[in-house]
Task: structure prediction
Amino acid sequence: MSATRPLHLAVALDGPAHYDAAYYVGLARLAERGALDFVTLGDSFARPGLDALAVLSRVAPVTERIGLVPTVTTTHTEPFHVSTAVATLDWVSRGRAGWQVDVSTTEAEARPFGRRPAAPAGALWREAADVADVAARLWDSWEDDAEIRDISTGRFVDRAKLHHVDFEGGTFSVRGPSIVPRPPQGHPVIVVDGTGEQGREAAARHADVVLVRAGAPDQAAALRDDIRRRAEAHGRDPDTLRVLVSLVVDLGESESAPDPGPGSDPQLAGGGPHYSGGPVDLAELITRWHGQAAVDGFHLAPIAPHRDLERIVNGTVALLQHRSLFRTFYPGGSLREHLGLARPANQYALAGGTT
Result:
């Protein structure tokens, strides 16, 4: 990867639960002011809190360009409903939706649903890969020009351009077609944490953006290379993947003189990389890692979302923009355009309309 390859930056809006939509609107608008690619909002059946997808659906109408990526678990949820919910977010955001795929592994998460007991992570990630597969099929089950809205004949849709997906997975089956027309992006962006083995294989098969955790550039580069090799083995073009390092950041400390040696890499804490310092030092780290062709970008998770995001945008991002390492405006309107990803062709249209 050339050092001139575009740098991608995203930020997590996670933190203590808030029940005021204005809180998340304010954070998303701040991230948008910095021209960040997207924001993520985590979700889990293991904790109380608002539904991430619903929150970002509220954020969508009051933002203009920032990508919106909620976590949606594929365990204990219906794949058909997941696909239509994410497609709806893409419509209400005018093509800015993504979906971070996750699984629910604990008995505590299974108990409220009462449908099945907890399952091993490997089995759940195989199911998650199936859900991502069927979601893409459902998004394609309407061709782009399926809606005709012909008032004179009373025809709303050309039924020849609706397709049954007839998917049979290991734990579910879906006939289709979707009840939501094909999303503006064709396929909303799929994000998967590829740090673990099970998630990495699902990411190689279906993800557009893969998140990894690494404490040094060479470790990040090795993970990126492994994911790209796996994607190629599945018949995918590895250049259609974006690999971002997930980094917990605490920008409450003062700046120090940048150290080009190993000591300036993030410290591994609690099983993941953790950066503590100032916004200028963080810009130096991002510049160095990207310059070494180790990553396509960073997914930053602030310890104190409001304080640290303000310092990321007005400090770190502003410095990267001054160095011409990060864009100063959004050249397009969709999340796929931010990431430099093409809009996927409809698989059923390519097949000649076969149902």
Notes: The chain has a mean pLDDT of 92.
